[in-house]
Amino acid sequence: MKDKREIAVPARTREILARHGFTLKKSLGQNFLTEPNILHKIVEVAGITPTSNVIEVGPGIGALTEHLVQNAAQVLAFEIDGRLLPILADTLQEYTNVMIRNQDVLQTDLVQISQENFTQQLPIKVVANLPYYITTPIMMHFLESALPVAEMIVMVQKEVAERINAEPGTKAYGSLSIAVQYYMETEISFIVPKTVFVPQPNVDSAILKLTRRSYPKVRVSNEQAFFELIRSAFQLRRKTLWNNLQHHYGKDPAMKSWLQTSLTQAEIDPSRRGETLSLEEFAQLSNTMEENK
Ligand code: SAM
């Protein structure tokens, strides 16, 4: 008989794990959510309707997936741990609009696999309780791919959410804030206490909502050079921009002169630190450096 309880109800999660003899793997970031109310809130924040396709990373035993499939047109989920596939086949057996792929999302060609699996062209939302050990690579994999992801609603460690959402001049601001804010508008929707996971992690989490901008926030003439500049500006924390740029691009007279001229033309004081520069200032500097090449 069909079990009417949600998968995330703690007693049902325990029963599913016991029935399948499943032991959680810490190395794969397996902290499962066992609080249905949090899942209801995630689905509400994500605004999933039958006119959206959803990609989920790491369905686990399907706690979030069952809510996604009940609301979306189709759900495509990537799960690296093959032991979870028979469990998902069991817990999600009544749904026909879910496709589970046993693969590492980082090794996935997102454009190709989306074309192969989604039958309708609808806006794509990424909704996931991300494995903490690879949160940033997964987010960048989606942002840098050519897949037109409209929104990402992801659970990440609270501290990572704060870094992504940070303003210039704050302690949390860094290359990750810039890399994400370049493509997306960012918002922390709500905080999730560590007590709602099995096993309980050491830190609280947050739901981060990222919405694709129609155009990147700033205009840059060479994206690759822009991202190189940003990485270099934050390479040595607590050092000035001047120190960091020389450290990265080189100290020979020609390089120094190129950097100095570009900083002067972009009207950026070399004694400032990277964390005080806005996205617009980084773009200005990068474009000037390109012009002076
Ligand atoms: N969605 C479930 C939930 O909310 O309870 C499980 C979330 S758990 C934090 C992360 C899931 O991601 C695990 O099921 C883990 O096996 C899976 N995972 C870890 N690394 C992955 C990768 N590289 N690609 C796909 N899935 C991965």
From TrEMBL:
<feature type="binding site">
    <location>
        <position position="129"/>
    </location>
    <ligand>
        <name>S-adenosyl-L-methionine</name>
    </ligand>
</feature>
<dbReference type="GO" id="GO:0005829">
    <property type="term" value="C:cytosol"/>
</dbReference>
<comment type="function">
    <text>Specifically dimethylates two adjacent adenosines (A1518 and A1519) in the loop of a conserved hairpin near the 3'-end of 16S rRNA in the 30S particle. May play a critical role in biogenesis of 30S subunits.</text>
</comment>
<feature type="binding site">
    <location>
        <position position="33"/>
    </location>
    <ligand>
        <name>S-adenosyl-L-methionine</name>
    </ligand>
</feature>
<dbReference type="GO" id="GO:0052910">
    <property type="term" value="F:23S rRNA (adenine(2085)-N(6))-dimethyltransferase activity"/>
</dbReference>
<dbReference type="InterPro" id="IPR023165">
    <property type="entry name" value="rRNA_Ade_diMease-like_C"/>
</dbReference>
<keyword id="KW-0698">rRNA processing</keyword>
<keyword id="KW-0808">Transferase</keyword>
<feature type="binding site">
    <location>
        <position position="58"/>
    </location>
    <ligand>
        <name>S-adenosyl-L-methionine</name>
    </ligand>
</feature>
<keyword id="KW-0694">RNA-binding</keyword>
<dbReference type="Pfam" id="PF00398">
    <property type="entry name" value="RrnaAD"/>
</dbReference>
<dbReference type="InterPro" id="IPR020598">
    <property type="entry name" value="rRNA_Ade_methylase_Trfase_N"/>
</dbReference>
<keyword id="KW-0489">Methyltransferase</keyword>
<dbReference type="InterPro" id="IPR029063">
    <property type="entry name" value="SAM-dependent_MTases_sf"/>
</dbReference>
<feature type="binding site">
    <location>
        <position position="104"/>
    </location>
    <ligand>
        <name>S-adenosyl-L-methionine</name>
    </ligand>
</feature>
<dbReference type="GO" id="GO:0052908">
    <property type="term" value="F:16S rRNA (adenine(1518)-N(6)/adenine(1519)-N(6))-dimethyltransferase activity"/>
</dbReference>
<dbReference type="GO" id="GO:0003723">
    <property type="term" value="F:RNA binding"/>
</dbReference>
<protein>
    <recommendedName>
        <fullName>Ribosomal RNA small subunit methyltransferase A</fullName>
        <ecNumber>2.1.1.182</ecNumber>
    </recommendedName>
</protein>
<keyword id="KW-0963">Cytoplasm</keyword>
<dbReference type="InterPro" id="IPR001737">
    <property type="entry name" value="KsgA/Erm"/>
</dbReference>
<feature type="domain" description="Ribosomal RNA adenine methylase transferase N-terminal">
    <location>
        <begin position="38"/>
        <end position="214"/>
    </location>
</feature>
<feature type="binding site">
    <location>
        <position position="31"/>
    </location>
    <ligand>
        <name>S-adenosyl-L-methionine</name>
    </ligand>
</feature>
<keyword id="KW-0949">S-adenosyl-L-methionine</keyword>
<dbReference type="InterPro" id="IPR020596">
    <property type="entry name" value="rRNA_Ade_Mease_Trfase_CS"/>
</dbReference>
<feature type="binding site">
    <location>
        <position position="79"/>
    </location>
    <ligand>
        <name>S-adenosyl-L-methionine</name>
    </ligand>
</feature>
<dbReference type="InterPro" id="IPR011530">
    <property type="entry name" value="rRNA_adenine_dimethylase"/>
</dbReference>
<comment type="similarity">
    <text>Belongs to the class I-like SAM-binding methyltransferase superfamily. rRNA adenine N(6)-methyltransferase family. RsmA subfamily.</text>
</comment>
